[in-house]
TrEMBL record:
Enzymatic class: hydrolase
Keyword Membrane tagged: no
Residue ranges constituting the Adenosine deaminase domain according to the UniProt record: 12-333
Origin: domain of life: Bacteria
Pfam families: A_deaminase
Name of the molecule in the record: Adenosine deaminase
Native organism: Streptomyces qinzhouensis
Family: Belongs to the metallo-dependent hydrolases superfamily. Adenosine and AMP deaminases family.
Record GO terms (molecular function): deaminase activity; hydrolase activity, acting on carbon-nitrogen (but not peptide) bonds, in cyclic amidines; metal ion binding
Annotated keywords: Hydrolase, Metal-binding, Zinc
EC number(s) on file: 3.5.4.4
Ranges in a coiled coil: none
Cofactor annotation: Zn(2+)
């Protein structure tokens, strides 16, 4: 098979499962760290590269929390958000639903309204200056319990920023049953937000059923353990409930022990609408282009197949129909031009 990386690099793409703080690249962390000299995070690129080399999952959490600690002011929030969009533009990502955990920032003392203004300012600037359309998913950090759920719901519903389209649930799944969050999802859905909880990443198919029946999920974050339950796979396929699959993340967190054993192909062949995403890209040593290359290999795709995969993300997005056909059209034109061009 030909090397698909140059094709993937230029392909217009949409990303549906990527975390705000988790997208802080070493370049962005260096900028934030320079703003807060008292932090113990290195500022020079070589030391940072080493800092970002994870030894295990506990180390990943430690680094993640040290980056959370660098986001202290509304200006930090704006810088992080805009610079994440800059990294997306470099990969030809045209549209992203960025998962933000406002509870972490608000609890750290950032003013709620200033936080919303900062992300919205970054969103409009990213669209105007970088051509990247951003939308938000506010997620409940599950490990922080019902108080975090209450705060997140209040912020989403009462202070709803213009770019907010969906409501999620992240953090660990083990020991954090999904059904307890039903009242919060009910409120968010009643306010017009779409339900996109993480489920079935590190626990079995029952968690995905709970996300569907209790939290009325329209899309599932990860959802890879669905493969263990044929009835669930059939349900996802029949009702066109997309999965946000993040292959390298699954390997990094040991949700799968080997990429070759990743269930993406089985799910796709069963007719499930599969999308490819990067989750916390710099922290997992990846980016969306790399995830597409991984998925193309696991799924056995050529250029046309990769273009279809990119269109799955557009289909599964919460863009309006005009926005969807604009990006799908860009993907089609790019692919047709690529395949028509003579190549050595
Ligand atoms: Zn995630």
């Amino acid at each position: 098979m030909s090397d698909l990386r140059p094709f993937i690099a230029g392909l217009p793409k949409a990303e549906l499962h990527v975390h705000h703080v988790g997208s802080a690249s070493p370049r962005i962390v260096a900028e934030l760290s320079a703003r807060h000299p008292d932090s113990r995070v290195p500022t020079d690129p070589a030391a940072l590269a080493e800092y970002f080399t994870f030894t295990d999952f506990a180390h990943f959490i430690e680094v993640y929390l040290s980056v959370v600690d660098l986001v202290r002011t509304p200006e930090d929030v704006r810088l992080l958000t805009f610079e994440v969009a800059r990294d997306m533009a470099r990969q030809n990502i045209r549209y992203a639903e960025l998962t933000i955990t406002p509870y972490s920032s608000v609890r750290r003392g950032i003013d709620e309204k200033a936080f919303m203004a900062a992300i919205e300012d970054a969103r409009t600037a990213a669209e105007a200056e970088l051509g990247v359309v951003l939308r938000w998913c506010f997620d409940i950090p599950g490990e922080a319990g019902l108080e975090a759920a209450e705060v997140t719901t209040r912020l989403a519903v009462d202070l709803r920023p213009e770019g907010l389209v969906s409501f999620g649930l992240g953090g660990p799944e083990i020991g954090v049953p999904r059904p307890q969050f039903k009242p919060y999802f009910d409120r968010a859905i009643a306010a017009g937000l779409r339900s996109v909880p993480h489920a079935g990443e590190t626990t079995g198919p029952q968690t995905i059923w709970d996300a569907l029946t209790e939290l009325r999920a329209e899309r599932i974050g990860h959802g890879t353990s669905a493969v263990q339950d044929p009835a669930l796979v059939a349900h996802l396929a029949e009702h066109r409930i997309p999965l946000e699959v993040c292959p390298t993340s699954n390997l990094a967190t040991r949700a799968v022990t080997d990429l070759e054993l990743h269930p993406i192909r089985q799910l796709a062949e069963a007719g499930v609408l599969v999308t490819v995403n990067s989750d916390d890209p710099p922290m997992f040593g990846t980016d969306l282009n790399t995830e597409y290359a991984v998925a193309a290999r696991l799924l056995g795709l050529d250029e046309r197949g990769v273009a279809e995969l990119a269109k799955n993300a557009v289909t599964a997005s919460f863009l309006d129909e005009t926005g969807k056909s604009r990006i799908a059209g860009e993907i089609d034109r790019y692919t047709a031009d690529w395949l028509a061009a003579p190549r050595a």
